[in-house]
Amino acid sequence: MSVDSDMEYSDNDGDEYGDYYGEQDDCEMETVDQSKTDPEYFLFSCLRVEEVEKLLNESIELLSNSLQITPSLAKVILHAYDWNAQEIIDKYKENPNEVLIHSRVKPRVPSLSANISCSTCAVCATANSTQKYSALTCGHYFCNECWAMHFEVQIMQGVSNTIQCMAQECEVIAPEDFVLSHVAKPTLRDRYQQFMFKDHLKSHPQLRFCPGPNCQWIFRAWVREGARRVECQGCELLTCFSCGAPHHAPTDCITIRLWLTKCADDSETANYISAHTKAREALKKYLHYYERWENHARSLKLEEQTLASLKSRINQKAQLEAEIENLSWKVERAETTDRGDLENQMDIAEKRRTILLKDFLDINTNCASSSKM
Amino acid sequence: MFNIAAKRIIKEIKEVINGDQVEDAALKLELVNDNWMDLRGEFKGPPDTPYEGGAFKLEIKVPETYPFNPPKVRFMTNVWHPNVSSVTGAICLDILKDQWAAALTLRTVMLSIQSLLAAAEPNDPQDAVVATQYKENPELFAKTAKHWTNIYAGGPNHVWEFNRKVEVLIDMGIEEHKARVALSTNDWDIEKATEHLFS
Ligand SMILES: [Zn+2]
Ligand SMILES: [Zn+2]
Ligand SMILES: [Zn+2]
Ligand SMILES: [Zn+2]
User: Fold this and answer.
1) Of the candidates A153, A164, A170, which has its C-beta nearest B65's C-beta?
2) Which of A4, A324, B54, B107 is most buried by a 10 A CB count?
3) Domain B2-118: assigned CATH number
4) Are residues A124 and B101, on separate chains, in Cβ contact within 8 Å?
5) Contact at 8 Å (CB) between A195 and A176?
6) What angle (nearest 5°) sits at the alpha carbon of residue A241, between those of residues A238 and A244?
7) pLDDT over 70 for what percent of chain A?
8) How far apart are CA A317 and CA A325, in angstroms?
9) Residue B19: how many CB atoms within 10 A of its CB?
10) Is B92 annotated in the active site?
11) What is the pLDDT of residue A171?
């Protein structure tokens, strides 16, 4: 799980910590500047695996100290509550049972059929008095050999944080210490902890792995909706923090996902056609909202000058609309031979998009400030 | 792991043979070619349903990692049901997927499939055409299911009207099963079914 340390980045370490540990006041000036020059400016930071581990451990420690529970249980609960430690602490004060049930540490209904005698194991169908048995909080006892195999199969399939009890209809989750007490193979233990880390990242709304190939950098940001451009400090890839796709503003995340699905699947399947139709509808929707914004802007009785500049934007918009229309017409009838042509068309549309986006946001900001209540 | 799977399967077959079953369930479970990874199951259609009186055969493939992974189960008997593919026999049932638990047995799996026949879940369909008919025309659905049970599962209840319609298409040179599928998916409208077949 380690990342090769790179001197160039290590030098910056201290500064970066300052940045994302909340001293946003200091960089306010810079923020304003960047947000002026870059219409897609978005506050985020690039972290290393060790830094993220530290960040997660702080939450785990906070929770395990305030609730007086093991770090292993704290992880299960944090995962279930999207790493919002404060929310958990508040809810736990109100009703600890509800928190434990919601995070599947405890069973919803006490298991009546729990096998307390431990004379036979229902999984391997063996009655062996020399075998050791264990159970989660639900009291479903199984032999340790079966637990070990259950965990091995689950870990090999990439499951880590959500491995369940082996009993029928039992949703209780096996916490880390229980799993590790049954798994001896070092490679398996490593694999488990790697998956666990990735899983934690997935459930953490502020974090996302850089999707670059073999890239170990992690983005941290505080907003996770709408198209949000982030640039990786390691591989320099531009992606969207909200959805992980290549950066795609002003198209929304769903549209780009449909578009990528279509691109990944070059065959003329039903999926492609329906996905594409949706993408096209979404593009139209984008234009529709642009139009509405435009009308709204007009109703604000902007000064003549602004109106004039707006008119030229409308022209640009009409052009972009035509490009997109053209593009989607071609895509609809796309054959593999059209690929080069399509890419050209996309390129044209992308250039217009960039120009328009910048103007669009500029006007929008003016508009917003003049219409403040 | 190999050991546990084989041991479990042998025990499960015994459980089904000696099990204190309700007569209606009448489960059968046996090995194919003495290989524990390949089994055949059979159960009776639940009473008071269109499947009543039919005997339904299942193909059961046991993975090496059984019981830590679920068995792969599909119908070998053609079934008209929203949660069963009328083409492949694939079954949409949660315990065969993410709700599988190592403590479950093939007996519970077969009983669950049997109760799925009695209580369909049209909102989680395996066969969209059947599910639509189930929702929009429940009477026609029940008749079609009864007809399929009669033809493919040896059920006692004939649906003469449908038999005749199938024969009309057979006379036109269409293979029997193809004819039945075309009629079933076109709400037993002969014109629509032939259009469907010849387009
Ligand atoms: Zn066991
Ligand atoms: Zn349990
Ligand atoms: Zn990267
Ligand atoms: Zn996105």
Assistant:
1) A153
2) B54
3) 3.10.110.10
4) no
5) no
6) 75
7) 57
8) 12
9) 13
10) yes
11) 93
pLDDT at A365: 44
Within an 8 Å CB–CB cutoff, is residue A124 touching chain B?
yes
Q: Is A355 helix (H, G, I), strand (E, B) or coil?
A: helix
Q: Domain boundaries in chain B? A: 2-118, 128-198
SS3 B40: strand
Q: Which ligand is nearest to the CA of A150?
A: 1
Domain boundaries, chain A: 109-196, 310-364
**Is residue A270 very low, low, confident or very high in pLDDT (cuts 50, 70, 90)?**
very low
Which chain B residues touch A if contact means CB-CB below 8 Å? 1, 4, 7-8, 11, 65, 67-69, 99, 101-104, 108
Nearest to A122 among B1, B69, B103 (CB): B103
8 Å CB contact between A169 and A149: no
Whether A164 and B108 lie within 8 Å, measured CB to CB: no
Cα of A96 vs centre of ligand 2, distance in Å, is 20
Which one of 3.30.70.3040, 3.30.40.10, 3.50.7.10, 3.40.1000.10 gives the CATH number of domain A109-196?
A: 3.30.40.10
Q: What CA–CA distance (Å, rounded) separates A147 from A165?
A: 9
The 10 Å CB-count burial string (b at 16+, else e) for A311-348 is eebeeebeebbebbeebbeebeebeeeeeeeeeebbee
Which ligand ends up closest to the CA of A40? 4
CB A201 within 8 A of CB A209: yes
> Residues B86-144: pLDDT tens digits?
999 999 999 999 899 999 999 999 999 999 999 999 888 999 999 999 999 999 999 99
Rounded to two decimals, what is the model's pTM?
Answer: 0.71
Task: Report the C-alpha gap between A141 and A117 in whole angstroms.
Answer: 8
pLDDT, tens digit (0-9, with 9 covering 90-100), for A127-154: 777 778 999 999 999 999 999 999 999 9
pLDDT at A160 over 60: yes
